[in-house]
Specification:
Layout: E1 5-10, E2 28-35, E3 77-83, E4 88-92, E5 98-102, E6 105-111, E7 125-132, E8 135-142, E9 170-171, E10 181-182, H1 229-246, E11 272-275, E12 278-281, E13 290-291, H2 314-323, E14 330-332, E15 338-342, E16 367-373, E17 381-387, E18 391-395, E19 402-411, E20 414-415, E21 422-425, E22 438-442, E23 447-450, E24 461-468, E25 478-483, E26 487-490, E27 498-507, E28 510-511, E29 518-521, E30 534-538, E31 543-546, E32 560-567, E33 575-580, E34 584-587, E35 595-604, E36 607-608, E37 615-618, E38 631-633, E39 641-644, E40 656-665, E41 673-678, E42 682-685, E43 693-702, E44 705-706, E45 713-716, E46 729-730, E47 739-742, E48 756-762, E49 769-775, E50 779-782, E51 790-799, E52 802-803, E53 810-813, E54 826-831, E55 834-838, E56 851-857, E57 864-869, E58 873-877, E59 884-893, E60 896-897, E61 904-907, E62 919-921, H3 924-928, H4 933-945, E63 961-965, E64 975-981, E65 988-990, E66 995-998, E67 1006-1015, E68 1018-1022, E69 1026-1029, E70 1040-1045, E71 1050-1054, E72 1068-1074, E73 1080-1086, E74 1090-1093, E75 1101-1110, E76 1113-1117, ...
Antiparallel strand pairs: 1-2, 2-3, 3-6, 4-5, 5-10, 6-9, 7-8, 11-12, 13-17, 14-15, 15-18, 16-17, 16-19, 19-20, 19-21, 22-23, 23-26, 24-25, 24-27, 27-28, 27-29, 30-31, 31-34, 32-33, 32-35, 35-36, 35-37, 38-39, 39-42, 40-41, 40-43, 43-44, 43-45, 46-47, 47-50, 48-49, 48-51, 51-52, 51-53, 54-55, ...
Length: about 1300
């Protein structure tokens, strides 16, 4: 339960557990209600028979069984009854005894269905439910309007549940505290309690679990519990207060009057339990049959049978008023269990004038319902009769019980108000039949019997009558005890004998019926050894055995058995395994497949017998462990593989009888198929699919059972070539030489996807087949077929394992086609320029040839159609003699054009040569190749002589013409000579060459030339005229002279022309200079008349020669000229350094120059004072000079030059160095030597810069000035003009 429920009830009469509060008659007991799941109670003790709270004064608080709990359905809950300190709580346990629990304690009581328990309140009290913060409290308060001391309170009385066999509250044995003490009998036996006090109130109704052997008769007055003086006085005071509180309200009864009696329905016989003088009557009623009491007719509202209420029309209201006028019933013939009730029909009351009101006749006969109540006038009523009669006999009532009866009239759907209730009390009668006595203890000669009192039915039980058959078994009973006690000891009995007993109760009203007969037995002697135990069932770790009762022992003797066991090889001997009264036992925790010895002995209260004979039993073997994982043996084949496995490591104590192999296709392992079962440890799995994955596993079986499965082995079978395909089929209309085929994949792929297809074709006359397609596609085009023929096609597929078998043949016929290839044509030469070609007609392939096409050409790859027509020959004209020609023929019909025939070579006869087509003039370089070797020797002599000019060439372009031509076609006969025609001159005959030099011609003269070729067959035609002209004579060399020279350069001049000439001048010159080996190297080639030779060495002789050439050719070289360069002067000396020594002297130093080709170097120092001229101050080889006698306050300038002293020539002076200035000393500035030196150097640098500024430096300076001016102008334009 999610929330906690606390029930508070005001209870009267619980011994030592009531608390009195001033002036409000409140007794409180708290119930703590907590949830317990249904399954939590499954393993506990079976429920008790009732959940009543015992009280000597008042009705017991109880609740009917829950309506929602049937066969264990619904949640279970536990109600905790809180017993305060100084209070007591009495319950009945499972064995029938009573347990009294003193506070402080909490007693758990189980509610099987988890519903809120209904609280039965004492007479004159009402219950009220208050819910605060999820906790529900039930308060039992005194009834304020009216109170009936003679009956139970009519308020809060729920109808009995439909399942009366379930207990309302069951004491939970696992949660109950230990019992402080038990009520025992004071005299005569257990549970014997005197019952001298007659209770004023009838106990509450308790619904028992089932009708037991202790049940009494259906009619009887409940017994009364003994009450001490203190309790009686307290009760009298409470009764007095109740009467005072109600003001002597009606309906009260005297103290000693019999209590009101509840009535039981006919359909459900009651079950009454009598325990120690406190009884409870079970009343089972059907729900929906109880009607509620009303305060009077004025409070009654009309209600239909369907339970709906509302506004009624006038007729219905009149009928309802008629029904409500029923009279009070009259009770007569009151018996202990029955009564006769009669009543009068409802009548219309008379008006004031004595006449009856408007007649309101019921549409249907009236029916009447008689209801009774055993809980007071305002209690809940139960319907006992329903019919149209005006009287009814009410049966199945309880004796000595107060009842209230009322009647209610009904018509159609209307139900009138019930009549006034009339009370009556049933008569007392004899007690109910008691339960059979039970055996409390016994020996060989005595039996102690005990019994419980039955319901007294309104009159106290005075004595009990116990009868027995004296052990004779004849069915004739004699009285053995008569008295008020509830137990009796029977003595002087025979051992091991059966005695029958029965019991009856007696009160003032009579004797009850006897109980059922019970058979009891006395003990006997020591039993005999029983037979050996027999094996009933065996397990791996247990043995189930049974044995027989010793034949000599009577059935009434209580015999117990001891089973002893000895394990083979343990050495411990026989040990007890079982001790009890059962005739079978299961011995557990044994070892598998082990032999055990057993024997059994019997004993009773007199002693133990000898053990039986020893028997041996063996436990079953355990199931073996799983076999090892299977392995593959050998090679896996496409359709099978061989597997093997090892036996299990643990056989379970028994030999393995067989192995079972399971196989599963695929890797999912969803379905397994048994493929082998036998003793072998290997198996060949056959019938497999190629290229598939399989899983296999093994388990074994023995006497112990089946082992677990082994680990799974995965196997992949190899693929095989695919199966045969369906024959290919034709797609579209077949062509003459090509068909389109298509096919589908094979039905069996061999375990691997098809990757390739192969198509083979066989001809109509040959059985040999050839492959025409191989690839992955499902269609192909087959070409190269013959028109109008039938071909057979077959197909095969391939995967990674190879090609499969060929399919069946597919016959396909081609359509008509173009003609076949013609045979090679034949040629006949009629002349060197005319040939006749003829041919034959080829096979037409089903269509006649309509025309022929002849191709003719000089080359095999460039033939052109020269004839089209039906003829079989053609004449070719205009051919070249001695020429190879090619020809071929093809045939044409309506189906197409046939292939060309093979090309035929045809050669025309020989003829005179053809005319020369192209004539060329030879160049001068080609003319020189025709010079004789003598000229080469002269050249060598010229090189040796050095100065002798070369001779003129043998073939001069001025007097000779070189002619070359392309050889013409000889027309099959080799050309023997050529004839060169010069016009006026005699023709020149040349051999079979393509070049010729015509000599002895006039310079600068034009000639017309034509050439004719000749062979053995004659002279061919002349060529076209070719015009050539001889060149003028070449010029003579000019005179060469040197106009300027230096130690490194020579300037040469020749001719009379200007120094620089244009390149367009006709006359040009070539200047050459001789090297050390005597060879001449060209220095200049051009029209100029001067040339400057640079990078020469000093004092060295050089040789030169010159040649003039123009369009006529190159003239001869001049004689060799020799020119010599002079010696070079020394290099300029760097700026000298001047250091003042004192006012009148200084020292001038300069750097030394190295000697030049062995010639020594001397230096000349010049000095200039002021603006006078330089004068020589020193000449010699030293590099410093001490100048003295200087005048103060005067400027001096110094410069130095180097002089080369030649051995065989005058001295050569070099340029002077830059001047250096020595400034005079001033009085205001004192300069050290280093300052003077730096000043002198600065002056020298400035002088040097002034003198050495070149043209380039001046141009750069001007450029910088212009750039600065341009930047300034741009700046001015930017800031003053634009902005």
């Amino acid at each position: 339960m999610a929330s906690e429920n606390i029930f508070q009830s005001q209870q009267l009469g619980c011994r030592k557990c009531h608390a009195i509060q001033c002036n409000d008659w409140q007794w409180k007991t708290e119930y703590l209600f907590s949830g317990v799941n249904e399954g939590d109670m499954a393993d506990h003790t079976p429920p008790l028979e009732s959940g009543q709270l015992l009280s000597p004064d008042l009705p017991i608080l109880a609740s009917p069984p829950p309506s929602a709990m049937v066969n264990g359905e619904g949640p279970q809950q536990v109600i905790l009854v809180q017993v305060n300190p100084g209070e007591a709580f009495t319950i009945r346990r499972e064995d029938g005894q009573f347990q009294c629990i003193t506070g402080p304690a909490q007693v758990p009581m189980m509610s099987p269905n988890g519903s809120v328990p209904p609280i039965y309140v004492p007479p004159g009290y009402v219950s009220q439910i208050i819910e605060e913060n999820g906790v529900r409290r039930v308060l039992v308060l005194p009834q304020q309007p009216e109170f009936h001391p003679g009956g139970h309170s009519p308020l809060h009385h729920p109808p009995p549940p439909p399942h009366a066999h379930l207990p309302a509250f069951i004491p939970h044995p696992a949660m109950m505290p230990p019992p402080p003490h038990l009520y025992t009998g004071m005299a005569g036996g257990v549970g014997d309690m005197s019952s001298q006090y007659i209770s004023q109130y009838h106990p509450a109704h308790i619904y028992s679990e089932q009708v037991s052997a202790d049940s009494h008769s259906q009619h009887g007055r409940p017994p009364f519990v003994h009450r001490d003086d203190r309790t009686s006085k307290t009760y009298e005071r409470l009764q007095k207060k109740l009467k005072d509180r109600q003001g002597g309200g009606g309906g009260g009864q005297v103290k000693d009057s019999p209590p009101p009696s509840p009535q039981k329905t006919c359909s459900s016989p009651p079950t009454v339990d009598i325990h120690n003088g406190v009884g409870g009557n079970a009343l089972e009623a059907e729900q929906g049959q109880l009607s509620h009491a009303a305060a009077g007719p004025d409070r009654q509202t009309g209600r239909g049978r369907n339970g709906e209420s509302g506004e009624l029309d006038k007729e219905a209201q009149a009928l309802l008023a008629l029904l409500s006028t029923i009279s009070t019933p009259v009770v007569s013939d009151i018996q202990a269990r029955g009564v006769v009730a009669s009543w009068g029909a409802p009548t219309r009351p008379e008006s004031e004038n004595g006449s009856v009101e408007d007649d309101c006749t019921p549409p249907e006969p009236l029916s009447y319902e008689v209801s009774i109540s055993f809980s007071g006038k305002d209690g809940k009523y139960k319907s006992m009769y329903c019919g149209e009669e005006l009287s009814a006999t009410l049966e199945d009532l309880r004796p000595a019980t107060d009842y209230h009866v009322r009647v209610q009239a009904m018509c159609n759907c209307l139900q009138g108000s019930p009549s006034e209730a009339v009370s009556f009390t049933t008569l007392s009668c004899e007690p109910d039949p008691p339960n059979a006595p039970r055996k409390a203890s016994g020996t060989k000669n005595t039996l102690v019997l005990q019994w419980k009192p039955p319901c007294d039915n309104g009159s106290k039980i005075q004595n009990y009558i116990l009868q027995w058959d004296e052990g004779k078994g004849t069915g004739i009973f004699e009285q053995c005890y008569y008295g008020p006690q509830k137990q009796y000891r029977v003595t002087k009995l025979s051992p091991a004998s059966r005695y029958s007993f029965r019991l009856a109760a007696k009160n003032d009203m009579g004797v009850s019926e006897f109980s059922e007969v019970v058979d009891l037995f006395t003990s006997c002697s020591v039993p005999l050894p029983p037979f050996p135990p027999e094996l009933e069932m065996a397990g791996v770790t247990w043995l189930c055995m049974k044995w027989q009762r010793p034949t000599s022992s009577p059935k009434e003797d209580d015999i117990y058995y001891v089973l002893e066991m000895e394990e083979e090889g343990s050495g411990y001997g026989f040990q007890p395994s079982y001790d009890g009264e059962e005739l079978s036992c299961t011995v557990r925790n044994l070892h598998r497949s082990t032999k055990y010895k057993f024997r059994v002995a019997a004993y009773n209260s007199e002693g133990k017998s000898n053990p039986s004979q020893v028997v041996e039993f063996i436990t079953n073997p355990d199931r073996p462990s799983s076999p090892c994982r299977p392995v593959i043996r050998g090679r896996v084949l496409p359709n099978s593989f061989k597997m093997a496995w090892e036996p299990p490591k643990d056989n379970g104590g028994a030999e393995v009888t067989k192995y079972v192999v399971e196989l599963s296709e695929g890797l999912s392992g969803l379905s397994w198929e048994l493929v082998y079962s036998g003793p072998a440890m290997e198996h060949v799995c056959e019938g497999l699919k190629p290229g598939c994955s399989y899983q296999t596993r093994v388990y074994c079986m023995s006497e112990g059972g089946q082992s677990p499965l082994s680990e799974t082995l995965q196997v992949q079978t190899p693929a095989v070539p695919p199966g045969p395909c369906q024959p290919p089929r034709l797609v579209g209309k077949p062509k003459a030489r090509e068909v389109q085929l298509r096919w589908g994949p094979p039905q069996v792929d061999g375990g691997s996807p098809v990757s390739c297809y192969s198509v083979e074709v066989s001809g109509p006359q040959s059985e040999e087949s050839r492959e025409v397609y191989q690839g992955p596609e499902l269609d192909c085009s087959v070409g190269g077929l013959m028109p109008g023929k039938t071909y057979s096609f077959r197909l095969k597929a391939a995967n990674k394992a190879g090609f499969g078998p060929l399919s069946e043949r597919c016959e396909v016929s081609t359509g008509p086609g173009a003609p076949e290839q013609c045979k090679a044509a034949s040629t006949t030469c009629k002349s060197p320029s005319c040939v006749v070609v003829s041919w034959e007609a080829p096979p037409c392939n089903g269509a006649p040839v309509t025309e022929f096409r002849l191709e003719w050409g000089a080359a095999e790859g460039s033939m052109q159609v020269c004839y089209t027509g039906p003829g079989l020959s053609h004449e070719m004209k205009g051919l070249l003699p001695a020429t190879n020609y090619f020809c071929r023929v093809q045939a044409v019909n309506v189906a197409g054009v046939g292939p060309f025939s093979e090309a035929v070579l045809c050669q025309t006869p020989c003829s005179v040569p053809a005319a020369v087509s192209n004539i060329y003039a030879l160049k001068e370089s080609e003319l020189r190749r025709y010079e004789t070797p003598v000229d080469a020797d002269d050249d060598e002599e010229e090189e040796d002589g050095g100065s002798r000019p070369p001779p003129p060439p043998l073939y001069s372009p001025s007097t000779c013409l070189g002619v070359s031509w392309d050889p013409p076609c000889d027309h099959g006969s080799e050309i023997t000579s050529y004839l060169i025609d010069l016009g006026e001159r005699q023709p020149i005959v040349a051999g079979p060459v393509t070049k010729h030099i015509i000599q002895h011609l006039q310079p600068d003269t034009s000639y017309r030339i034509r050439i004719q070729a000749l062979n053995s067959l004659g002279a061919g035609p002349f060529s076209h005229t070719f015009k050539l002209k001889t060149k003028p004579l070449p010029p003579q060399p000019p005179r060469l002279e040197c106009t300027a020279f230096s130690h490194q350069t020579l300037r040469l001049k020749w001719g009379d022309g200007p120094a620089k000439a244009a390149t367009s001048d006709a006359l040009q010159y070539q200047l050459q200079m001789g090297d050390k080996s005597g060879r001449f190297i060209s220095l200049y080639k051009g029209p100029c008349h001067t040339h400057k030779v640079q990078r020469l060495n000093e004092s060295t002789s050089y040789t030169f020669r010159i040649q003039a050439f123009n369009e006529a050719g190159e003239g001869p070289f001049s004689n060799v000229y020799t020119f010599t360069t002079p010696r070079s002067p020394p290099a300029p000396v760097k700026v000298p350094k001047v250091e003042r020594l004192d006012d009148n002297s200084c020292e001038v130093t300069w750097e030394a120059l190295p000697p030049m080709k062995g010639d020594p170097i001397i230096y000349t120092l010049q000095c200039m004072m002021g603006n006078s001229e330089f004068k020589q101050a020193y000449k010699g080889s030293a590099t410093s000079y001490h100048v003295q006698s200087l005048q103060p306050n005067s400027d001096y300038r110094f410069r130095v030059c180097a002089i080369r002293q030649c051995h065989d020539a005058p001295e050569l002076s070099g340029p002077y160095s830059p001047t250096v200035t020595l400034s005079p000393q001033r009085s205001d500035v004192v300069l050290g030597g280093s300052a003077a030196g730096s000043g002198s150097r600065a002056g020298a640098e400035s002088s040097r810069s002034r003198r050495s500024m070149t043209d380039e430096q001046c141009a750069f300076l001007l450029l910088m000035v212009f750039a600065v001016i341009a930047i300034l102008i741009a700046f001015v334009i930017q800031y003053f003009v634009i902005k």
